[in-house]
Design a protein that fits this description.
- This protein is an alpha/beta fold.
- It folds into 2 domains: 117 residues, NAD(P)-binding Rossmann-like Domain (Rossmann fold, 3-Layer(aba) Sandwich); 195 residues, Dihydrodipicolinate Reductase, domain 2, CATH 3.30.360.10.
- It has 9 helices and 16 strands.
- The strands form 3 sheets. It has a 9-stranded mixed beta sheet. It has a 5-stranded parallel beta sheet with strand order 2-1-3-4-5, with helices on both faces. It has a two-stranded antiparallel ribbon with strand order 13-14.
- Helix 4 runs parallel beside helix 5.
- Bound molecules: nicotinamide-adenine-dinucleotide.
- The site of nicotinamide-adenine-dinucleotide has 24 residues, from helix 1.
């Protein structure tokens, strides 16, 4: 039997959840609630049931999952009310603006005996999954540097995302995804140092870009960059490991890998540079390296809801765990502090 879902917020992402639910094999859409009458009407025009109020939505006993897709500042209140009404809750990312708000939400889930998760849907992105497979397979050895960038050139959308009070800015918007991915790529490694520098090119109130450097306990490095004023984009992912390098130039492209098979096995032909010949920077050839591309991994975004439903049924652990969300929240909070102080923060996670 399918789980019954109610979506709170019928904007961009609420619409996504609704469309997703309409084709889901595990959830059935009961309806939506949006605070704006025009969005209620839009839902009705789309043939979707709209509850008259949040109370009415939460009072529907047939509903057992509530997805909260409203601006970031309002997540805690609505999530906690839904949990108190006995619903399992999926909250859009970022779970909250501050760590303490998130902890209140997590405590409420525990108190109410209901499941709470966060829609970290970029765990299903094929570019990220290709990088994860390189890290997990060890095919080019131990990874020591990962650079993850997403570049646009349109600034922050001109809605609530440009306002601090609503939880705007790129750390909370895209940073949350890229940090979550980075922590997964590095598995159990702990963070020792963090430095974050934000940009305020198109918006003075909130960050319109971020550059975050993470140093892990074994010296490996993670670099996360979100830019909204990049008219030429740098590669989506660049990864260095002890036996090779991998790159994804664009999220639509395959992952390219060059594996180093022999360190010093052929005569190096020097290359000409403006200032003279160099052997150090001479390109590798196929005698010492193998170049290949990875097939794009299989991915199905419906697996997020499938997993949550199975977690409710007690058949699986939820994929996006609250302790993982808490770790990302801590790092984002440290990003704001590091940017404000223009300082490296040291911690032995923990944080
Ligand atoms: P949006 O502005 O398009 O839509 C928000 C909707 O919520 C609006 O229709 C608004 O009227 C409604 N709303 C506001 N307060 C409400 C309340 N208290 N109760 C009911 N309805 C309310 O914003 P969006 O782009 O849909 O973003 C919503 C959330 O989804 C944000 O947290 C955002 O970060 C997240 N999001 C996630 C992804 C992702 O890939 N996971 C992508 C985009 C947005």
């Amino acid at each position: 039997m399918k789980h019954k879902l109610c979506v709170i917020g019928y904007g961009g992402m609420g619409g996504w959840h609704v469309r997703h639910a309409l084709e889901s094999d595990v959830v059935e859409l009961a309806g939506i609630y949006d605070i704006k009458e025009e969005r209620q009407e839009a839902a009705r025009r789309d043939g979707i049931f709209a509850y008259d109020s949040l109370e009415a939505a939460l009072a529907d006993e047939s509903v057992d999952i509530v997805t909260v897709a409203i601006p970031n500042d309002q997540h805690p209140e609505v999530v906690i009310r839904a949990l108190a009404a006995g619903k399992n809750v999926i909250c859009e990312k970022p779970a909250a603006i501050t760590l303490s708000e998130f902890q209140t939400m997590a405590d409420a889930a525990k108190r109410c005996g209901k499941l709470l998760t966060v829609h970290q849907n970029r765990r299903w992105d094929v570019d990220y999954l290709a990088m994860q497979s390189i890290c997990d397979s060890g095919e080019i050895g131990k990874v020591f540097n990962i650079e993850s960038r997403i570049h646009g050139s349109r600034g922050i959308p001109s809605d609530w995302r440009g306002k601090k009070e609503f939880g705007g800015g790129m750390i909370l918007d895209w940073g949350v995804h890229l940090i979550d991915q980075m922590l997964r790529l590095y598995g159990g490694r702990k963070i020792n140092q963090l430095y974050c520098d934000c940009t305020y090119i198109t918006n003075k109130e909130v960050d319109d870009g971020m550059k975050l450097e993470l140093i892990f306990d074994d010296g490996s490095r993670g670099y996360v960059e979100v830019g909204t004023y990049n008219f030429i984009s740098l590669p989506r992912f660049y990864l260095q490991a002890e036996k090779g390098t991998a790159i994804i130039t664009d999220w639509r492209e395959k992952c390219q890998v060059v594996r180093c098979d022999h360190w010093h096995e052929s005569e190096v032909l020097p290359v000409q540079t403006a200032a003279g010949l160099t052997k150090t920077m001479a390109p590798r050839d196929e005698v010492t390296t193998t170049a290949y591309s990875l097939e794009r991994p299989e991915s199905d975004v419906h697996d997020f809801y499938r997993n949550f439903c199975r977690a409710i049924e007690g058949k699986e652990e939820q994929t996006v765990k609250l302790e993982e969300v808490e770790r990302v929240m801590k790092i984002m909070e440290a990003c704001f502090e590091s940017d404000r102080k223009k300082q490296v923060l040291f911690f032995d996670e923990g944080l």
